[in-house]
Amino acid sequence: MENKLSTSPYKGTTDTYPEDMLTNNYIFDTWKSVAQRFGFEEYDTPLIEETALYIAKSGDEIASTQLYNFVDKGGREIAIRPEMTPSLARMIAAKKNDLTLPLKWFNIGKYYRYEKPQRGRRREFIQLNIDILGIPTLEAELEIFQYILAVMEEFKAPKETYEIRVNSRYLLDYLFEEILRLSEEKKAKVGRAIDNYTKLGKEAFVEYLKELELTEKQINSILEFLNSTLEDLKKIADKSDGAKQLIELFAKAEELGLTNIRFEPSIMRGLAYYTGTVIEMFDIGSKENPRALFGGGRYDDLLSMFGQEELPAFGIGWGDTTTRDYLETYGLIPETKTDTKVFLPLFDIKLYAYIQKIAKGLRTKGINTETQLTAIKFGNQLKYASKKNIPWVMIIGEDEINAKKVQLKNMETGEQNLVTLEEAIETIKS
Amino acid sequence: MENKLSTSPYKGTTDTYPEDMLTNNYIFDTWKSVAQRFGFEEYDTPLIEETALYIAKSGDEIASTQLYNFVDKGGREIAIRPEMTPSLARMIAAKKNDLTLPLKWFNIGKYYRYEKPQRGRRREFIQLNIDILGIPTLEAELEIFQYILAVMEEFKAPKETYEIRVNSRYLLDYLFEEILRLSEEKKAKVGRAIDNYTKLGKEAFVEYLKELELTEKQINSILEFLNSTLEDLKKIADKSDGAKQLIELFAKAEELGLTNIRFEPSIMRGLAYYTGTVIEMFDIGSKENPRALFGGGRYDDLLSMFGQEELPAFGIGWGDTTTRDYLETYGLIPETKTDTKVFLPLFDIKLYAYIQKIAKGLRTKGINTETQLTAIKFGNQLKYASKKNIPWVMIIGEDEINAKKVQLKNMETGEQNLVTLEEAIETIKS
Fold first, then answer.
1. A168 close to A242: Cβ distance less than 8 angstroms
2. Largest alpha-carbon pair distance within chain B?
3. Which residues participate in L-histidine binding (chains A, B) (predicted)?
4. Which of residues 193-222 of B touch A (CB under 8 A)?
5. pLDDT value at residue B199
6. Confidence bin at A105 (pLDDT 50/70/90)
7. pLDDT tens digits for A399-421?
8. ipTM score of complex
9. CB contact under 8 A, B45 and A16
């Protein structure tokens, strides 16, 4: 080989060493076990789809600039998935008549977007997608809210550090059409500005709206809208479906005793396909994490791109990077430990088969057991077990074999006892 | 939308519906839990790497014809990973000085190869990679053998249906260099032919060797080699390191009581980087599955492409498709069941909040609980629970609320009892 290759991963991606994997798995296992507790079922889709599936949603930033798309060796236009929803829609459209509604489905998978890597945003990311399909009423939203709150509780997240912000695209429609009477083109631009309102700040936001040639009256209406409360929505409940639905949603959430949910008129969601409720969750206890932990909403015309009738749908995509950042900010990541329970050193290669027999017995008893595979210095073997945080070391040399006992060392206290194998198993398992 | 999109997944890939996902997870969870039982640690690598990482191993079929490679929006030559080993090597080379050897690592991830889809082979596949790094002696091989046999035991695989076939690249080197005295070019061609020996059959194999202009003596030597047994290896043990190692390996395997392992001189493995032991596992109880369930071997010069010194390594890549096919052939896939334990119907939307409160209580007790979200006909709700294989239905209407009881229905027997919530929880958990 003439040129040495770089040992860095591709830009915007990460190598996950075992220690980091334990943290990732803590997040993924929590997402998954809570989803199962609510009766959601796991599914999966290919990582590659024909590009047309993403292009179909025109006006979408992802499809135009962030897509990893290319031509395969057979001339097919394909892309690595940047999001789950189009694939989910395709899967459901393909088997619509065989599926019993509602579907409560989740997936934890990888995604690729060509973006500028920065805090909370990478080119490769893992996302939980959790969706309810076939429920037209707000009980779908409430189910997902309950799921989210159950996950946050499992994460031991302090109540004052997070907030689910809720809005309705119908309410925005009412603003754009009935109050502002905007053209389609301006709707998109004003929409993007509102989406960035928190980031831009009021001044830059107003400046931008002026550039769009909005009248002072229009700008004031927008600012008034962005300051409106749930109370204000009651005044327009008979004129706007969005207002009516939001009032109903918050009333039902209160009845269920749900917390950490707030109406926020600036929540917009970039994607073209949302209809009705849109939500995002933020860290509100620190300034470390300005990005949403997840976003989602209702998208009832999911199947139209396959020429099929409407299917009510509500779901969220919950990112790994922002979640890990949030958990780190609040010291909520559990101390990383190995899954291994006991380590068996090796003093002499002649004892290898004997040690393996003991290890096999321990594994049969459900004890995760690692054995030393080469007879090196005992001190180094102990260091290895200690570095890997293995809680027990079971020492077996000629003396122990003759005495039909083992030395069991507690790696935390340093205590060491000569006991029978059965006693050792009992101690390790307790 | 003018044109309806296709609902088919991209060629050679599969949509995984929840029912199939349960089967996949059965395989993945088995791979993972047994790996943890042996003290292996999980890691992960990006799905995309710079193409150079795959091209570096010249002479490799994967890199030249099967790679999904393309240029990203920033002009970088990248590829979707077709195998794990180059990424694993990169990760280790990057942190060599921080890592305590040996490393016992595993990953379960997705891979892409541009191939003709057929039984046991798809363009997208999931593979377990399990490797031991830093052990130069045969104890690494023996550890992986024990892992494989423990997985097969966990799968309840009948002993007479599978076989690990073992060879050594050093033995092949001895054949090519000392016996046949082949040129480098012919070595590669003869190597590929030997790799296909079982598929080709003797006649076509000999024909092909004649085309390569091998002498009759050479051809006879090859045929003799392909018929050689472990006993025959003893005759050349002082001339060939490969023979010596294989004899030692089988002696140690016998000492450990390992079964289902056989010396097979035709095992070759296509990849360029193997050094020493090579293995493959086959279904030997049926003709359904001609492809190897996994393949692997020793690759001690793993880090040379990063300009680093040798690191002993032994590992296998175990495919999902062939494994699922094998398990299906022998009826070893457990009956698919939902993870949900109980279903709560809804008779009137007014009871929704009450039902949710009960559900929350059940989930807190660790019971996976699904609730009906819209009040439809009771019969349809029961049908849904039955179709999803949920074992219990907890019926709560006005009468039950007034009586402070619940109706608990066993969906298998049809038996239904009016009991307290506590009694119901006890029954469901038992």
1. yes
2. 94
3. 83-85, 113, 127, 131, 269, 273-274
4. none
5. 84
6. very high
7. 999 999 999 999 999 999 999 99
8. 0.94
9. yes
Binding residues of A for L-histidine: 83-85, 113, 127, 131, 269, 273-274
Query: What's the start-to-end Cα distance of chain B, in Å?
Result: 53
Helix (H/G/I), strand (E/B), else coil: B290: coil
A353 is written with which tokens? 């088969």
Question: What is the CATH code of the structural domain delimited by B18-329?
Answer: 3.30.930.10
Average pLDDT (A205-224) is 95
CATH number at B342-429: 3.40.50.800
- C-alpha distance from B421 to closest chain A C-alpha (Å): 18
How many angstroms separate the CA of residue A335 from the nearest CA in chain B? 16
Asked if residues B269 and B258 have their Cβ atoms less than 8 Å apart, the reply is no
Buried b / exposed e along B32-54 (16+ C-beta atoms within 10 A)? bebbbbbbbbbbbbbbbbbbbbb
Which parts of B69-138 fold into alpha helices (H)? 85-94
Q: Are B244 and B277 in contact (CB under 8 A)?
A: no
Q: Rounded distance, CA A7 to CA B53, Å?
A: 9
Q: How far is B1 from chain A (nearest CA, A)?
A: 6
Domain boundaries of chain A, sorted by first residue: 18-172+258-329, 342-429
Q: Is the dihedral of CA A151, A153, A155, A157 positive or negative?
A: positive
Residue B322 contacts residue B289 (beta carbons within 8 Å):
yes
Q: Six-digit token pair at B334?
A: 């457990």
| Mutation for A interface: B139, B151, B336, most A CBs within 10 A | B139
Domain covering A18-172+258-329: architecture: 2-Layer Sandwich (3.30)
Binding-site residue positions of A: 83-85, 113, 127, 131, 269, 273-274
Burial class (CB in 10 A: 0-12, 13-18, 19+), B360: middle
Closest CA to A104 of B429, B109, B385, B110: B385
Which residue bears the tokens 């519906």?
B17
- Tokens representing B59? 């002479």
Rounded Cα distance, B397 and A56, in Å: 46
